[in-house]
Amino acid sequence: MSDAQPLVPAVGELILEAPRRGKPPQHLADLTPEQRREALQQAGLPAYRAEQVSRHLFVHHGADPATWTDIPAADRERLAAALTPQLLTAVRRLECDNGTTHKTLWRLHDGSLVESVLMRYTDRVTMCISSQAGCGMNCPFCATGQNGLTRNLSAAEIIMQVVDGARSLDAGEVAGGPGRVSNIVFMGMGEPLANFAAVSHALRVLTAPAPHGLGISARGITVSTVGLVPRIRDLADMGLPVTLALSLHAPDDELRDTLVPVNNRWKVAEVLGAVWDYAEKTKRRVSIEYALIRDINDQAWRADLLADRLRGRLAHVNLIPLNPTPGSKWTASRPEDEREFVRRLEAKGIAVTVRDTRGREIDGACGQLAAAE
Asked: Given a cut of 80, is residue 361 above it in pLDDT?
């Protein structure tokens, strides 16, 4: 695996290296198990307490030291200060879909805002999490992209979004009673692969068995990207069979150069080449994300071209009815155009689904809630 050095800083208006801002406090979730023990030794505390705190955080989802009753009361606050400083503060919590969808707007230590969403289905609980505050990819139809990039999130800031969702389920705060987070999608704010070092560490902690991590199956995790080719290859080299989701949105370079500006650096053929290599190495089917935008990318001939590019590959198309942002000229495709797009893909043997559009009434598109705040 590469050492994840930053990519060249700019492609047109893209920001591929996050601005430098105040570094978040070091947290247990930023560290390997051995580093956690070393951190406690440096703080003058017993190293073995690291595993106890890890268990409280990743198994019992208890960030409040008052609940750590197997640890002497005199040590709890010192342990919390050394290993579990507060990273996320809830600014707003909204729910819809009869209480099965919860969206949280978080304020970070430096005032940056990010969002996460918990979605409960009959057979799973999925969390959509953010990896950056804002985004530097500048896709014109995306609310987050229009706000620009503030900074990368630390690994712990990413992980604690999931821990909070797990705590909410434990407490029965989500309709349907207690449960567990089974699926994670890195489809919140930010381009995950532009924050590769933190995201790769977060993936290892999310999948690590208890008490060192949350023990979530790698096969239940999806990492989305607009197509940062070197980082796609780095992700493949990690050896974790997470699902890769490519935000393609157009099968031709002429349109994709506009919709996904990073295409000016890595063209459709090169991005898809990296994606097919990922599928071959991990044996995981790739998800091709395609936001249907009225009269922009929903033409029948583009459905045919998309099918031709994907035929015979280990891929699945996830069509996304665009969730329009206030004041935007971009809007969802007409129902009849969406149906025809699906029909043409299926006619050429391409697996396709249309994403369930949850959370429209609570500013469901990533970035909308932060922009309103």
From this structure: no
pLDDT tens, residue by residue, 191-227: 999 999 999 999 999 999 999 999 999 999 999 999 9
State how far the Cα of 82 lies from the Cα of 79, in Å rounded to an integer. Answer: 5
pLDDT at 150 over 50: yes
Q: Token pair for residue 139?
A: 């896709």
| Helix H or strand E segment including 244 | strand 243-247
Q: For residue 44, give both structure tokens.
A: 């003058």
Query: pLDDT by residue (tens digit) across 217-233?
Result: 999 999 999 999 999 99
Q: What is the DSSP string of 61-109?
A: ----GGG-TTS-HHHHHHHHHHH-----EEEEEEEETTTTEEEEEEE-T
Instruction: Clarify whether 96 is annotated catalytic.
Output: no
pTM value?
A: 0.91
Q: Are 74 and 335 in contact (CB under 8 A)?
A: no
Annotated active-site residue in 34, 51, 115, 361: 115
What values do phi and psi take at 155, rounded to 5? -55, -40
The domains of the chain, with CATH numbers, are: 28-83 (1.10.150), 89-372 (3.20.20.70)
| Residue 366 among the catalytic residues | yes
The verdict on whether omega for the bond into residue 321 sits within 30 degrees of 0, i.e. cis, is: no
- The confidence score (pLDDT) of residue 369 equals 57
